[in-house]
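ok posting inputs for the adenosine-5'-diphosphate job
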Amino acid sequence: MALIECVELTHVYLKGTPMETEALRGITLSIDEGEFVGIIGPTGSGKSTLIQHFDALLRPTSGTVRVGGVDIGDPKTNLRAIRRQVGLVFQYPEHQLFEETIFEDVAFGPRNLGLPEDEVRQRVEDALRAVRVDPEKFGRRSPFSISGGEMRRVAIAGVLAMAPQVLVLDEPAAGLDPQGKVEILNRIRDLHRSRHITVILITHSMDEAAQLVRRLIVLNQGQVAMDGPVREVFARGEELTAMGLGVPAITELLQRLRRRGIPVRADAVTPDEAPRAIKEALAWS
Ligand code: ADP
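and the output
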């Protein structure tokens, strides 16, 4: 079933002013329950604007967005219910940590829902464990006493504690050191695999996209330029380059070999697929 559906979605900022910007222009797409989708596109292509419609922080200027079948543009729609269903993790979410302890920070959302204290505790512990932060060891510590990567995981736990059906993340690994990046991306992968949460993730890294997601939506100038399986999208390297994007490092290497006349398959997108592609080419030549 479609969990999120956009039909001819258009969004115009500052309409009727000299600064008017048409950030989204006729976006039609559908994301099903259980999918793991990446959104890529050059800066200013509309990625952040699009995901803010998924939890009704923004409303369409025209067109329709339905979340779980409910039209977010309908004035009768309960937006709080939509926001409970869709957990949005902004860029650098750790900047929004503010409580004295990690426990209190993660508890903030569930408390706002008016849940009983034992359920709040259960949700906080569960959410912290899901991002591999030990609630016993860290719960009473200040969120400002831990590493940047841990802070980000705590911030994500705060969103998970609301028990969303869909997790939408804007550049979750940005600015972290390589180890912090791997850790956070592995946790997101686990959430999708073991908790069956639908994940939608904006990324600038083609390698990250190749290793994580199954489907890629490419935005360009407010429109959907491509939407399909990762391998099919990265096979269109020249179009991506024309948009100022790239392909994963390994795809780039294989595509270069091909251009030099080496008959290698150029559809490998992750490093572990490359040896096979090269072996096949060697056997063939
Ligand atoms: P991306 O996330 O792909 O970088 P955005 O959705 O942030 O793209 O921006 C799309 C377009 O909308 C850009 O031209 C940007 O300048 C404009 N824009 C984004 N947010 C606002 C805003 N709050 N007010 C006015 N214009 C905005």
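notes: The CA atoms of residues 149 and 180 lie 5 Å apart. Residues 13-14, 21, 23, 41, 43-49 surround adenosine-5'-diphosphate (CB under 6 Å).
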